[in-house]
Structures are given as structure tokens and as C-alpha cells.
Amino acid sequence: MVPAELMGGHVHETAGGKRIHIWRRGTKFIARGRFQGRHFGETLGDESSATTKLRRLLTAIEDGAYRPPSEAHRRQLADGTVPRLTFRQLAEVFLAAKRKQVGIQTATDYRARLVPLLVFAELPANRKRWPLAADVDAGFVTDARAHLYACRTSRNGRAAGQPRPLSPRQIVNVMETLRAMLAWAADPRNNKLPPGWLNPVTRGSVGTPPAKDPFRRDPLPLEVRARIVGLMDAWQLCTLVPSLILPMRPDEACGLLTDDVDFEYAELLFGINLPDVNFTKKKVAFRLPFPSELRAILESAVGDRTSGPLLRTRRAYTRATPLGVDTLADLKAQFDQRVLSEKPGRVQTDHDRKILFRRLLRELGGVSADAMNREFKALLAAAGVAPGASLYTLRSSVTTTMSTGAKLPHLELTYLTSHSTRDILTRYTSLDVHGEMRRYFDHVRPLLDAVTRRSDELGIGRKEAGSYES
């Protein structure tokens, strides 16, 4: 770093007698001085912008409004003039901010949704008409939406994949992301768009997602699920049957630990053990009763292990020496060590911690949701089920049976399907989830009988099908 000059001098003095010295490191100018009894250094940038920033710095010091860079994190509002950002630059700033707030997985989804809009915004004619993000108007929104209907994509973005148009649901997702990005940029706390700028993306321009038919047929009724059970091998029975009976999301099933099986009360625990890293959607914690017909299957899934992932890969399930840890505390210690060994910036949110924890479970033999879905689709094909159903639609079938078949009350059904139960009635009444699940298990008795028969055939458990025991 060497002494330098800006505006004809090395030292600049404010009206209050504060002296600012100009230095240079490479192509960057730096202003150094003392403010409120403390040394500070402010990077002014290259020669094209340093003079303007120096004037702004001197004015802020004279007005008493200056904050050193070390205190910048305390600011509640963004400082400085509104930058002249292109659409791509605004998208980059938005994604970087969201990465720190919602985690890498959601930020990646946002990025995928913004890609078609970036393609539209950077077409030569459109760059000329809307050169900056602040120029986005109703015409941009209308033309961008029309562009989305002409877009072509492929499964998982593969270059050699079969091209197909964007789905109506995805077009709504893209427009909602555009609206969210512009609203974030127009917020005075972020200061990325001029004051008074109005967001041209309205509810009408976003559109509404296609509504589901309330009278649609259940793609996986009880008799179909019972037929699928008869085709399962031992590993499939231990891994997939709980999802055939209980309303679990695939992500929730993959996150189950051996410690989450309460054999005394016949319950599966979700979001209760290690809730800071193994939480459910919306971070809802709940208990899901299971029938006696599942006891032997869950015991086989646990095996001789004392902790670790409940549902394992086929290879880990048949392994002579099972992978695992001794206690839940050991599992937490392994995860803590994994967090400390990650590169800086990789773990920034709770969801990043959850992704890292699920990766640890897979290294300990845990199965992934994609692997479960592949196995389930193979069973559907073997059972002659029409294409379209998957492990992700199975939960809908189970919930439909609980609602329209077993007629479970709304509050109990809301709780058992891992939704937040903030209804005012829960303040005055308790939920009888065990009693309602007994009624549901009686309704799905043919499915439970099929599970018992297949378990006996495979030698997993030879307990007779009985009534539900809590």
C-alpha cells in the first residue's frame, strides 16, 4: 500500500477538523482516518468511482452519519444510492441474499425458475427496450409470460432429453418468483430499485395454478396397495410398507431414526429427536401411531442396531455387520464434527444443516427418497398400475382413505398428516389420535392382513394379525 492522491491531494480535512488520508493498493483507493476515537479504513474502489465515494465519505463524516465498515452489519437499512442493475445483476444479488435466508436447496429452485426469464431479458431486442431492472414494466411482464409458454425444457435439464413445454404449474412458479424478486428489490431495506418504483407483476399476471379435481379417483386404493404388498421382498416390505399404511412424506420417512420408534406406545416420532437438524416441513413435531402388524417389520428394520437411520438401502439392510452408531448422542457428535469440517459458507441456514445431516444418514446406510421412489415405481409396474402414480402420490391415497373411508375428524387428521394444528379448539380439547387411528386401522384391515401374510411368507414375523394396541 502506497500513498496516493485524489482531488489533488493526499490529505483531505472536513469542516470538523477530521483528516482523511488517501492510499492505494493495486488499482484500489483506500481512505484511512480516525472517527469517534477509532481508526477506520474505507475502500473507495478504482479511479472511476473513488472520487465520488470520497466526496460522499467526507459529507457523511461532517454530518455525523458515517459508520465504519466494521459496524456496517448493524445497519437496518441499505446505505448509498440505488445501483443501476441489469436484470441479471439483480437476479444474482437476489439469489445471494436468499441463499443466506432459506438455504441452498430453495435458492437453487429460485435460480432454476429465473433462468427462462434471464433468457428472455437478454434477447437483443429486450435488452434494448429494458436495459435495467428498474425499466421492467407491465409490457415486460406480459411479454415474459408469453415467452414462458413458448419455452422448451427437458427432464432434469438434460441436454439430450426429450423437449417439452413448461407446465402451467411451473409457469405460475416462475411468475411468482419474479414477483418475489422485484418486491424484495423494491423494499427500502434492500435499496435495489428506485424509491416509488411499483411492482408490475400483479396477481392477474401471475395466474393461478391448475386446480385439482375434488372428485378425482384414488390412483392407489386399498385393493391395489394390498396387491403391491404381495409382490414385495423382505427389504421392500421393511422400507415401503410403512408408507403404504401411514401418511408420511417420503422426506419424513427417510429421516426416521431407530430412536424414533417407540415400541412401548406403538408410535413413530417425527421432529422430536434432534429437532434442530432433523425437522419436518414447517418444523412440525408429531407422533404417528402404528398398528401391531407393523411391529415385526419395524423390529426387522431396526435389527441389532441401537441408533442410526431406520430405513436403510438394500445393501446396508443385508450387510452382515450393520453400519450405525451406538447412541443418539454419538450420532449428534458425528454431525457436529461434520459441520466443523465443512468449507466456510456451505452451512448458513437450518435447511443447510438438515441437508448435511441427511447426507450423514445416507453414509450410515440410510435410504434416499429417490431410491424409495424407484423401487416403488418398479412395484407399480409389476402390479399393472397405470403410469402416473409414485411414492409422492401415495401419501395422498393414504390421506384420502383416512378422510373419506375411515372418516377421521378434521383436527386429528390435520395432526396426523403433519400439519400445524393451531385451531382454537386445540386450546380447549385434546386430540384422541390413538382412538382415531384404531378406527382407521380397522378400516384398512384387508391391507394389514396382506402385510401379515407377506411377512409370514418371508419369515419376517409370524405374529397373527390382531387389533391395534396402544
TrEMBL record:
Residues 195-214 are annotated as: Disordered. GO terms for biological process: DNA integration; DNA recombination. The keyword rRNA-binding does not apply. GO terms for molecular function: DNA binding. This is Phage integrase family protein. The lineage of its organism: Bacteria, Pseudomonadati, Planctomycetota, Planctomycetia, Gemmatales. InterPro entries: DNA_brk_join_enz, Integrase-like_cat_sf. It comes from the Bacteria. Keywords: DNA recombination.
